[in-house]
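Re: the request from the purification team.
They wanted to know what the chain is likely to look like in 3D before they choose a buffer screen. I agreed to run a prediction and write the result into the notebook, where they can find it.
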Amino acid sequence: MTTIVIAGGSIGGTTTASTLRTLGFEGNIIVLDAEPYAYPRPSLSKVAMRGEHVLEPDGDEGIEMRRSTRVVAHDPERSRVTLIGGEQVAYDQLVIATGSAARRLAPQLPGEHVVRRLDDVIALRQRLSTTRSALIIGGGLLGVEMSSACRDLGLDVTLVANRPPLQRAFGDHVATWIREEAERAGVRIVDTVGPVIPFGDPVIGVELLDGRRFEADVVITAIGDVPDVGWTPLGTSIGVLTDTEGWALPNVVVVGDARATKLGDSVVRDPHWQAAIDGGRAAAHNLLGIDPPVARARYVWTECFGHVVKLAGHAVRGGPDRLLEGDPSGARVIAWGESSPYECVISIDRRTPIPRLRSLAAVTSPNDRSLEHEGINK
């Protein structure tokens, strides 16, 4: 009987597993996940930071889910992986879905907080309950969401970013607006260029290239991720390289944050939740030799400072070309381009169904900017 081993039990891996069963695969599916429990990762900086319940049921029936099980080695020639205790697990086909780890400013020093796992949030909330100020490094999705969460907890918040907050994810228009909303909520935003140097042991602050120093009771780093692929000889510093269908080898497919796709002379990553879901569904089809679902427009979203922002397509520079729905200064759906499918569509505080939003935007491949993280100490 065919055995498909899935290394990694986050959304990319579990979507692959459940889709395989939906498509009628009757062989063995073994999911090896380092986490002790299941939860949606985007909820960490939103729901979990509010202290609300985020744990989910543990997988589907008919799937062997092995929790607290870390893969530490991979032998592609013998088609097997090795677990942390030395056990070897053979496969006919392997799905690499081990995701990524948080990038840090000071990996060797205590005091620097990151938000990548539920345990990170539990520890951080405990620390924040006894403090008055937070210093957050990075103006991407996570940095902005953590700034919002810390303000909701009543903390004095400083956000250090090397570009306007959310600019890379949502473009100039949203970046300008969300900065105003963040500052209205009481966040101090510090613009910087060049490296950010942490100081203190434990870390209590950072120094910028121009000599300015900022410190707080808690330092939270949100400057991107590092693919967790050091356990496989297929891994590189930017992930496991694949073709456009996700294949790294004839019997090894890659999904989610671990994947880096070769597109001509470029290599791209798209480390976002919906990309992992779409990739997991496509991987299951490809593993079974079935045509994958029709590609849909890329989708990302955020909740911060009392607003919900959704994007379909790819962020572009400049202001929107048209208002599709709502109030131009309130809840609205805006688009870039002359007609549907638009290059980019953004919903702000509208209950726009995700499928409809994605249907309005063009299906395009991520460009090479997808390889960038927040650019701090790159």
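For the purification team: The helical segments are 11-22, 118-128, 141-152, 167-184, 273-287, 354-360.
Please add any questions underneath this entry.
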